[in-house]
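Quick start: read one record
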Amino acid sequence: MLDQVLYVQRGPATLLEMSGPEVQAALQVTQTILIPFGAIEDHGAHLPLGTDVFEAREICRRTAIRLAAQGCPVVIGPTLPFGVSSFHMGFPGTISISATTLLALTKEVCLSLYKGGFRNFVLIHGHDGNLPTMMVAAQEVVDATPDAVAVVLNWMVALSKVYHTIQRSRKGESHGGEGETSRLLVTHPELVHPERGVPFHLAPEDLRKIQSAESMKTGGGVFYGIRSYKDLTPYGHIGDPTLAAPETGEKGYEVIVDWLSSIIKRDFFDARG
């Protein structure tokens, strides 16, 4: 059916769903806004192209709920859907924008929100390929204003430390693998098709270049530019999505939200005394 309900989106409302007066009311109690960064790119036959968009928004949604329960209200901004995904362009449907474009977009979004009254900008990714540009953008927002605070939070460092305790696979999971598929099963089960996925693991020397303790995105000190995922995997994903389970996804989200909420609470609420 062409008019079926594809998925259900739960609150709290983001800036997209709020009215102007509702934003004004929120600004009376907070100047902190979470901005999710996604991407539209291939994740294998079993996941939607918008996986990173859905994941980034869900991370911010859960973090906002956790913070509200702790007396730390925040607003969730609109998810920026396009990212730096040039290394996924070998797969149909992928949309990639340049780092220059993402930098300009991020800066202008933040400065627009600044003019409206927000002062604390928390940039949260759903696609690690955006991280370098997000960091430059955060610095430029600070440079362009007298009192804005901009921070980029990379939850992958916290999650990577406990992968082995929450995932079944021991062969190295990455893009579109067990972990990411599990998180989408929690939030968008209607769009996930694990039966279409196949186990596909990289050789250790290839895996360490994109996800390992050495990688900057998971807390290490090494960064490798990636030429093409098509050269790494014919399927578009890395790992075993057939092992995915909602319970694994919930555990992953719990780790992510624990870490994010602790940093945001410390930096933007506890610091007020």
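The first strand starts at residue 32 and ends at 37.
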